[in-house]
Amino acid sequence: MTEGEANRVLTFGCRLNAYESELIKNAIKDIDDKNLVVFNSCAVTNKAESDLRNSIRKTKKQNPQAKIVVTGCAAQADAAKYAKMPEVDLVLGNQEKSDAASYGFKGGGKLLTGKKEEDLNHQDKLFFKSKEEINNSLTDFEFSKIKVNDIMSVKETAPQLVSYFEDQTRAFLEIQNGCNHRCTFCIIPFGRGNSRSVSFGEIVEKIKQMVENGHKEVVLTGVDITSYGEDIDVKISLSQMIKRLLKLVPQLPRLRLSSVDVAELLEDEDFFELLRTEPRFMPYLHLSVQSGDDLILKRMKRRHTRQQVIDFCNKCLEIRPEITFGCDIIAGFPTEDEEAFQNSLNLIKEAKLIFCHIFPFSPKDGTPAARMKQSNGLIVKERAKLLREAGEEELQKYLKKQVGKKVKVLVEKNSVGKTENFLDVKVANHLEVGEIVDVEFESLK
After folding, report:
1. N or C: which terminus of the chain has fewer CB atoms within 10 Å of its end residue's CB?
2. What is the pLDDT of residues 419-437, one digit of tens each?
3. What is the pTM of this model?
């Protein structure tokens, strides 16, 4: 949670949401109302939404005068649900949340999430309700709270580029939003819309500004950044864009990527050339893996196979031996048996995945996976625990091998720095925040 002098913006979910909360803060900065509270929501699981609703109720109970605005993916995907909450005063879609004009508490009644059935593919039909069905479920008062556009019709990315900074050194820049894929467990396309890219020129100008402001590292972020450029008139891939970007901004010391999709990079020779020839392209990649079993991956509607993850990691290691990998893995996806689970467990070691984000499967209403036969909750919890332990074991083995090695570290606050391959390092107290220094690993803490 971030609290300003006159407004509060509470952020749930991913780094992209954290970035976009900066857009919200900028939009409401001139609203002089200490009771305004904006919830920038996440819809990735039912639990995420349950936590959101509990937080809304708690906030209203603690401050009965609070004017509560709900925006983000949960609001976009199911505006009616939040309009029906008595604690909520206004519901804004993802497109509306960065526009200062949206925060007026009059003149709502804009709900365009319904679709004509003939315009939808099979999976989208399972999620979308008709306008009539939504509207008939709302009172006039509830409907008046809503300002939510049809996200699938949105062609633009963020209307303004506001930097999200972490530890005063690392800046995040949204280069893409939305997703064209329909993984069976994921609701995000219905909160974010289809994939759309920020123009190359805007990206270059913004990063130049970041460098001028003293930031030494920029992280390119989005919902599905490996699809960058597919919607631009003159086609350009993510790798080609980065190569041009680094040439045009030679003063940028470090460029890093957020989560990437193996399926879109494995056959991309421009990517491997970038990895081979550009030292400013940081040797750390967070991979959207989700499972290490081919049948489960197929049921998830993922586009990669288990072997492709291993091949991709091995190829990267041949080019940059110091590269490290993070991953997202879901434990207990419906129909996951013991063999499928062991395939995920073994993949952590085989692909050398050391920063593992493990998520127990949580069904999300409106997704195909929510209608599949669910796994036993206790088994899912135990599998998530074992996956986390496997990831931690790989991390500790890797860290032990680093003792005595020399690395470059970007110094951040509290005398902690990040190596190029994303390891946290404690450095000398006298070093200034923002310095990039050569250090030697002395020991593990």
Report:
1. C
2. 999 999 998 878 888 889 9
3. 0.82
CA distance 15 to 17: 5
Residue 329 and residue 341: Cα distance in Å, rounded?
A: 11
pLDDT at 105: 64
Tokens 């107290």 sit at which residue? 429
Q: Residue with structure tokens 């006039």?
A: 140
Asked if 90 and 145 count as a contact pair (C-beta separation under 8 A), the reply is yes
Would you list the domain boundaries of the chain? Answer: 2-149, 164-327+334-340, 406-440
Structural contact between residues 56 and 85, judged by C-beta atoms closer than 8 angstroms: yes
DSSP category for residue 262: H
User: CATH homologous superfamily of domain 164-327+334-340?
Assistant: tm_1862 like domain (3.80.30.20)
What class is the 2-149 domain? alpha beta
Residue range 435-445, pLDDT digits in tens: 899 999 888 87
Q: Please, what is the Cα angle at 177 between 175 and 180, to 5 degrees?
A: 125
Distance CA 65, CA 67 (A): 6
Of 330, 58, 138, 65, the residue nearest 50 (C-alpha): 58
440 forms beta bridges with 406
User: CB under 8 Å to 101, separation ≥6 — which residues?
Assistant: none
